[in-house]
Give the backbone structure.
Amino acid sequence: MKRILTIQDISCVGKCSLTVALPIISAAGVEAAILPTAVLSTHTMFKGFTCKDLDDQLLPIARHWKSEGLTFDAFYTGYLASAQQIEKVIAIIDSLNRGNDLVIIDPAMADNGRLYPAFDSDFPHEMAKLCAKADYVLPNITEACLLTDTPYRAEYDRAFAENTVRKLASQGAKKVVLTGAAFDGKYGVLLYNSETDSFRMYEQEKIDAIFHGTGDIFSSTFTGALMRGMSEEDSAAAAADFTAECIRITKQSSDANWYGVDFERAIPYLLNRLS
Ligand code: PXL
């Protein structure tokens, strides 16, 4: 069985980061090992959240794995607790990567033109260093703009999306998967391969709703599907379709919570989609 190491926070309540990565990667039939970057009472869209940064644990945990000869087929990072952590995460991936293990970076730090509350304006610059190491970097348009020092636009055309994604890849990432790409009346996922300088767009119907944690659902599904052996196009399509299904189900549900989507109800759909 393939083993993924996912590096992100535990938000105890909030349906994001590790509390969605674990069930989704497991449902994909792939082992999920975790390196928690911080423990938060909730995600940072709640007021008054607590946060215990686990910074001092990261290197000792990774050293123990190394001494045990543990290996990972892919490294998948999400929300990191601080700019200082990024350097450690890079060192950990460098130390454990056997050369051909996949590096998948979700620069989970911003949405709708704004950085998440816990980060200051230096954070994207540090995150760009991690993204430079990626086989796949999975930003939304806000993150792609922040990572490339491109002024954010709420509305943009295909040329703007392509230029921003190319700029991001020119900083080192091999492939970019732009989520929530919305231009020229189209909506979906824009894949860019820097080796062939080619783009592909997977189009979806745009559902008129915004929920937290959907980026984590996309990235976890993409990573799980890829490690299950699906092609990158099929993995991106499955991740986009599952995320949309989660949003659809949550919109219809009378007892849904504002803080995250009811991905649990869509797990049967995921199993079917990945089989
Ligand atoms: O879903 C991304 C995410 C992950 N972890 C924490 C967050 C967020 C988004 O706000 O606050 C702690």
